[in-house]
């Protein structure tokens, strides 16, 4: 008779056994999803009543962010699978339970898979109910809720919970007590990523030419349940959008879960019923588990040693030896404590001492491997003739490439195989490597521009590096790249229309669309250089002092995705687009005119009641036809402080005298900023030459 | 038919069963007796496919048991340490059995529950030890098995319930031609229940026999003569044990009772009494003959 791998009756039995914890988690998750949605609506409604339906506060309260849809699921994707597995598979920890289930006519694989499916069904019910409940409430409440969130949230949370389940099943298949279940579960879920993440961090800290998202598939962002937690503790700079909308992470997480479940099934099949109640199936595995538990702390020693480029010096050892010794002592303590807790035998604890050498050996191998990897990085400095092609993306160091901009995504596909670009990249890399070899930092070295390059060698080898280029080097590489029409298109092409567009201080989507359309039409008239300067966001022109010409008035932020890659790109509204700039000023003024006038009138030295007040006078900008000659600065700022209440009051009086004049950005103008009771107001005001001079004189007086 | 051929089971360095071979025919009540740690529970767990033997074969009707659903669906196992779902009642356990045994008969469950006077809706945690064993027995028998395995079946049962359980087992064996295998550390418990008995000691079966045969093939004869005599007088009789005190001798005789009495009468004894042996006494003398000191086994 053919053996069945799945039994519906057993699955129904599993569902029944999980009824109690299942319903508890279901109620918590549904309530925990409904209540924030309801409170969100109440908050929005209150803002409307308080500030008005079109107010900034109301607009901001109306937006539903993806991380705010079902926050309750974040703890539940860990707790629910954990509790479900401990409940349904608890027979693995008790001899009588284990014997009972193994005496049934179902095969071991059948029992395992049937019960696993029961767990998955409950998880699916919880995730679906939570997401759909919150989505439904947001949808009927009239708040700005993007229905695209729904499938992303469902698959992200489901994939995460499935992986947590898989790790727990893996752990329960190889251990036989609740304590060892939990310890092994933690090790299986977190330890591999812990090691790879710390290794990558270690490498990147030592050699910042390594990309923070190096490692491709082993990058922590791909493992959803781990990345949710590591984000909080390791300060990773990836956004909620990245966490919740990554198709590659969903796929990777599900595949890893399937692999772990397959391993767990295999182990369950071979598991002896008499293992129930024992920490490990054999003495050998007990040694292995003990070593694994010790490793997370013990590995910090080689990480600490290899983290520094000065570990040959006696001062390094003098200052770090206490830390190293402390970590070693605690690791040894954990090693023996694990044995004592799991076998409850002091004799076993003592007999386990010789195996400690394995932990030492693993740490040594790990440290040597890290060192080798680091040396490999320093040894990678190919000449131009060795390079087949290069991809180059201008890089913002503070963000991983997962937060790349639109142009960056297009640039990734552009391959440069001309000698000039290859030569530039080779030289910069060589320069960076030399500095690192000599122990000199790349930071604050005048190398202010970063490029993320993918270097493909003629021998097939491929590596990614972050290059630190000074102005000359940057200029060289930029010039060579611009010779490629594909590259030029990548840096000047605007994203498609349907993407999400925001602009500073405006929330009305109709106005934003009108502004964006005007921006696009003016953008097409710009020269390639001007378009390129928008992409590289060179919005400040420094003339060597604090006196700089303002060339942008605000910026658009565009979010979207190309396939599975998300992007965020800023497009400054430069003053080379006078229509867009003027329209923006007009829209902002229309929104805030009466509020700003009232605030300026009421100010009268009462600066302390406002969170912040500021005035910026723009005398000479990109659009200026005729700056006021007596004003020696292109622009300057005046902020409210204890010493400047009177000056600000006088400024406001000057401004109020001309308040109703239409602002003209080609002439000197003022931007006034207020932040009062958590609300922000901006206003652009016209200024006569005399008034501009008067304000300038007040500023001079303030600075004396 | 259940057959084990040189089955060995080890737990680490400890050998629980050592090349154990036995055959249990269908339709009988087979008793397995042995001291604590002899291997009785291990044997049952091997036969029910819970444990995998290190070596040897275990088959039911020539089909291997381990991981074989086709065979395993035909039997049920009631262990010494009972398993119930947490906070479950008999009714809940019946649902579990329904899901896991295709042949589970709910009517039989209800009838047996009534017969034993148990409330199926009450939490099993509230049952006494004996009541839990009754509940486990009811659930097992409701699966209508061809083979029933009981480990320390009567542990905790009062005499009335013990009889009730025995009668239920009898009826299954007689009416449905089931086979029951019962282990116990007490010969007295198995004496009036089983057809066949085997003695397990230190991982091996050292004695196996039909009970009827055991009870009738050995008997005690008390005899006295008015002349001097010794064991030589009884040459034609298979005397296993001869103890003489004064002129009275106690003989443990193996053989046909009537023939032996006739032979002894021909010797004109002044006293001739035939006394039955308890099963324990039979075992003692059989073990003695095999070279084992039975009393050292402390059964």
Mean pLDDT of chain A: 84
Shape of chain B: elongated
β content of chain B, as a range? 25-35%
What is the helix content of chain A?
55-70%
Number of domains of chain B: 2
- Multimerization state: heterodimer
Instruction: Give the biggest beta sheet of chain A.
Output: 4 strands, antiparallel
Q: Total strand count of chain B, please?
A: 14
Mean pLDDT of chain B: 87
- CATH topology name of the largest domain in chain B, in short, is Rossmann fold
State the share of residues found in helices of chain B, binned by percent: 25-40%
Main attributes?
heterodimer, A: 704 residues, alpha+beta, four-stranded antiparallel sheet, three-stranded antiparallel sheet, 25 helices, B: 299 residues, alpha/beta, Rossmann fold, Alpha-Beta Plaits, 2 domains, six-stranded mixed sheet, 10 helices, elongated
What does this structure look like?
The complex is a heterodimer of chains A (704) and B (299). In chain A, 58% of the residues lie in helices and 12% in strands. Chain A has 704 residues and is of the alpha+beta class. In chain A, a hairpin with a 2-residue loop joins strand 7 and strand 8 (565-574). The longest helix of chain A is centred in the first third of the chain and has 34 residues, at 108-141. By secondary structure, chain B is an alpha/beta fold. Chain B has 2 domains: 2-202, P-loop containing nucleotide triphosphate hydrolases (Rossmann fold, 3-Layer(aba) Sandwich), CATH 3.40.50; 214-296, Alpha-Beta Plaits (2-Layer Sandwich). Chain B contains 10 helices and 14 strands. A 6-stranded mixed beta sheet of chain B has the order 6-7-8-3-9-10, with helices on both faces. The longest helix of chain B has 18 residues, at 159-176. The radius of gyration of chain B is 23 Å and the shape is elongated. Chain A binds chain B through residues 1, 3-4, 9-10, 12-13, 16-17, 91, 94-97, 99-100, 102-108, 110, 272-274, and chain B through 11, 45, 48-52, 67, 69-70, 72-73, 76-77, 79, 81-83, 85, 95-96, 98-102.
């Amino acid at each position: 008779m053919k053996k069945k791998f799945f039994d519906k009756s057993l699955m129904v039995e599993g569902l029944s056994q999980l009824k109690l914890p299942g319903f508890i988690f279901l109620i918590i998750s549904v309530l925990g999803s409904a209540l924030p949605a309801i409170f969100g609506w109440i908050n929005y409604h209150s803002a409307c009543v308080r500030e008005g339906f079109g107010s900034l506060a109301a607009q901001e309260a109306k937006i539903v962010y993806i991380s705010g849809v079902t926050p309750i699921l974040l703890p539940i994707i860990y707790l629910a699978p954990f509790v479900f597995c401990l409940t349904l598979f608890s027979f693995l920890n008790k001899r009588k339970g284990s014997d009972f289930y193994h005496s049934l006519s179902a095969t071991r694989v059948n029992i395992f898979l049937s019960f696993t499916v029961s767990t998955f069904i409950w998880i699916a019910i919880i995730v679906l109910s939570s997401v759909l409940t919150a989505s439904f409430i947001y949808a009927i409440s009239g708040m700005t809720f993007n229905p695209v969130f729904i499938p992303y949230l469902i698959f992200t949370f489901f994939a995460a919970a499935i992986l947590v389940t898989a790790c727990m099943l893996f752990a329960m298949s190889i251990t036989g007590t609740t304590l060892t279940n939990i310890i092994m579960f933690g090790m299986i879920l977190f330890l591999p990523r812990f090691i790879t993440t710390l290794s990558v961090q270690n490498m990147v800290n030592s050699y910042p030419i390594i990309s923070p998202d190096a490692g491709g598939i082993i990058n922590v962002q791909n493992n959803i349940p781990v990345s949710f937690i590591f984000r909080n503790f390791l300060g990773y700079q990836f956004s909620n959008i990245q966490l919740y909308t990554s198709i590659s992470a969903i796929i990777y997480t599900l595949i890893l879960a399937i692999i772990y479940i397959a391993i767990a099934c295999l182990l369950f099949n071979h598991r002896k019923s008499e293992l129930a109640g024992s920490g490990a199936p054999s003495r050998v595995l007990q040694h292995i588990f003990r070593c694994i538990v010790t490793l997370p702390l013990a590995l910090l020693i080689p990480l600490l040693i290899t983290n520094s480029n000065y570990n040959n010096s006696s001062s390094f050892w003098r200052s770090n030896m206490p830390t190293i010794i402390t970590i070693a002592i605690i690791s040894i303590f954990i090693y023996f404590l694990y044995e004592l807790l799991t076998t409850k035998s002091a004799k076993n604890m003592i007999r386990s001492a010789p195996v400690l050498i394995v932990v030492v050996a693993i740490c040594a191998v790990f440290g040597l491997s890290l060192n080798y990897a680091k040396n490999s990085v320093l040894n990678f400095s190919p000449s131009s003739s060795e390079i087949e092609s290069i991809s180059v993306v201008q890089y913002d160091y503070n963000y991983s490439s997962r937060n790349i901009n639109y142009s960056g995504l297009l640039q990734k596909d552009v391959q440069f195989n001309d000698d000039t670009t290859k030569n530039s990249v080779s030289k910069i890399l060589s320069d960076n490597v030399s500095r690192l070899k000599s122990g000199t930092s790349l930071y604050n070295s005048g190398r202010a521009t970063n490029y993320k390059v993918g270097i493909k060698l003629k021998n097939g080898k491929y590596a990614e590096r972050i290059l630190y280029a000074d102005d000359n080097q940057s200029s060289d590489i930029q010039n060579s790249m611009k010779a490629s029409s594909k590259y030029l298109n990548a840096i000047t092409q605007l994203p498609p229309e349907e993407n999400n567009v925001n602009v500073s201080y405006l929330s009305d989507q109709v106005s934003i669309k009108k502004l964006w359309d005007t921006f696009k039409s003016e953008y097409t008239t710009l020269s390639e250089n001007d378009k390129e300067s928008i992409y590289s966001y060179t919005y400040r022109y420094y003339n060597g002092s604090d006196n700089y010409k303002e060339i942008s008035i605000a910026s658009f932020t565009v979010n979207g995705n190309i396939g599975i890659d998300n992007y965020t790109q800023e497009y400054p509204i430069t003053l080379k687009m006078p229509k867009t700039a003027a329209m923006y000023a007009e829209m902002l003024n229309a929104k805030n005119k009466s509020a700003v006038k009232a605030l300026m009138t009421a100010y009268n030295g009462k600066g302390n009641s406002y969170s912040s007040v500021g005035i910026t006078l723009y005398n000479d900008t990109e659009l200026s036809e005729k700056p006021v000659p007596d004003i020696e600065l292109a622009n300057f700022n005046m902020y409210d402080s204890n010493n400047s209440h009177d000056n600000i009051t006088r400024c406001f009086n000057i401004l109020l005298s001309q308040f109703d004049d239409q602002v003209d950005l080609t002439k000197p103008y003022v931007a006034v900023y207020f932040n009062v009771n958590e609300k922000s107001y901006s206003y652009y005001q016209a200024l006569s030459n005399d008034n501009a001079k008067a304000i300038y004189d007040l500023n001079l007086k303030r600075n004396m | 038919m259940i057959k084990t051929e040189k089955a060995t089971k080890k737990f680490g360095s400890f050998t629980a069963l050592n090349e154990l071979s036995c055959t249990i025919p269908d339709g009988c009540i087979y008793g397995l007796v042995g001291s604590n740690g002899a291997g009785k529970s291990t044997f049952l767990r091997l036969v029910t496919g819970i444990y995998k033997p290190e070596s040897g074969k275990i088959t039911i009707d020539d089909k291997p048991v381990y991981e074989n659903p086709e065979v395993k669906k035909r039997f049920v196992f009631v262990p010494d340490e009972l398993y119930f779902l947490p906070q479950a009642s008999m009714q809940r356990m019946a649902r579990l059995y329904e899901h896991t045994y295709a042949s589970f008969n709910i009517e039989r469950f209800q009838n047996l529950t009534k017969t034993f006077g148990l409330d199926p809706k009450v939490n099993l945690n509230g049952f006494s030890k004996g009541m839990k064993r009754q509940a486990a027995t009811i659930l097992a028998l409701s699966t209508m098995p061809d083979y029933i395995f009981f480990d320390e079946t009567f542990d905790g049962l009062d005499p009335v319930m013990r009889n009730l359980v025995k009668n239920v087992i009898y009826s299954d064996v007689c009416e449905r031609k089931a086979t029951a295998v019962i282990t116990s550390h007490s010969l007295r418990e198995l004496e009036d229940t089983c057809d066949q008995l085997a003695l397990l000691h230190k991982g091996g079966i050292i004695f196996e026999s039909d009970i009827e045969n055991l009870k009738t093939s050995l008997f005690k004869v008390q005899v006295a003569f008015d002349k001097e005599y010794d064991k030589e007088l009884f040459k034609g009789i298979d005397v296993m044990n001869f103890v003489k005190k004064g002129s009275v001798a106690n003989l443990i005789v193996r053989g046909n009772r009537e023939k032996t009495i006739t032979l002894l009468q021909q010797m004109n004894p002044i006293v001739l009494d035939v006394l039955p042996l308890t099963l324990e006494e039979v075992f003692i003398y059989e073990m003695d003959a095999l070279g084992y000191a039975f009393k050292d086994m402390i059964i």
